[in-house]
Amino acid sequence: MATNRTFTMIKPGAVRNGHLGAILADITAGGFKIVAMKYTKLSAEKAGEFYAVHKERPFYGELVEFMSSGPIVAAILEKDNAVADFRTLIGATNPADAAEGTIRKKYATSIGENAVHGSDSDENAAIEGSFHFAGTDIFA
Ligand code: DAT
Ligand code: MG
């Protein structure tokens, strides 16, 4: 995968609270092009696998339970400097620390239920994109 891509999930809480359309609008207004997208639901097993890097953290059980609690939207996004620019658009992990106007500031309800995922490196963007999509699912 090219390094001008990042991977996102709109998390179950944001979908449940009716923010899906507004978040997609913020993403496209931020200059990101959606090149793959899926409305889906993670099993607890798949959520655990996706967040395996956090297995030893105290919040892992809660995170897996939350991420498998309802439907999500998974997407691959394209933009110059996609990974860093998307982290800026979504804001800090804890919405209490997130800048005004960011997606997490506007739509997250807590650090654990923080509206959206954004990849933290080009390498992880590629791994996470492949977790959800085949090459034939991507339309650049
Ligand atoms: P980010 O999603 O900003 O990359 P992360 O990779 O450190 O943050 O953590 C992954 C997710 O785990 C995060 O989006 C929400 C949850 N999480 C992180 N820290 C937490 C905490 N202290 N308490 C509860 N959930 C937490
Ligand atoms: Mg992370």
UniProtKB/TrEMBL annotation:
What does the record give as cofactor? Mg(2+)
Nucleoside diphosphate kinase-like domain residues: 3-140
- Self-association state and partner proteins as the record states: Homotetramer.
GO cellular component annotations, sorted alphabetically? cytoplasm
Any Pfam family from its record, for instance, is NDK
Gene, per the UniProt record: ndk
- Where in the sequence is the active site? H117
Q: Where in the cell is it found?
A: Cytoplasm
Full protein name? Nucleoside diphosphate kinase
> Could you tell me which species this protein originates from?
Neolewinella agarilytica
User: Which EC number applies?
Assistant: 2.7.4.6
Superkingdom is Bacteria
By its UniProt entry, which SUPFAM superfamilies does this protein fall under?
Nucleoside diphosphate kinase, NDK
PANTHER family under this entry? NUCLEOSIDE DIPHOSPHATE KINASE, NUCLEOSIDE DIPHOSPHATE KINASE DDB_G0292928-RELATED
| Similarity-based family | Belongs to the NDK family.
